[in-house]
Amino acid sequence: MKSANVFFSRAQGHVEMVLEIDCETVARTSSPESIVMELQIREVRELHIEGKFSTYLPTSEKALTAAAEIPFTEMLSVLRLLAACSYMGEFPSIAQPERRKKPKADGCSPSSTD
Question: Is residue 111 over pLDDT 70?
């Protein structure tokens, strides 16, 4: 089962979330929805937040309530992220890009009239 870590920092007046998977930074954003998308695409099932809290994905109201009792550095951002994770589905909401072969031009103009 894949797991990920999220850490929070403040930069230029806004909160930034850093998503790490296998000790590698894969996303740095202020959008919880972007983090959720990365979690879905990478099929992550366990989320660790600042080393203080862990939950399985998708999250539940119970996890949100439990997290509200923990003194995170950026409480509102943590709760927004967990709320977004509750809407996370089993499969990515964005499909992988299609790899269809484009038809070759045959040299005939389809708009030519006689």
Answer: no
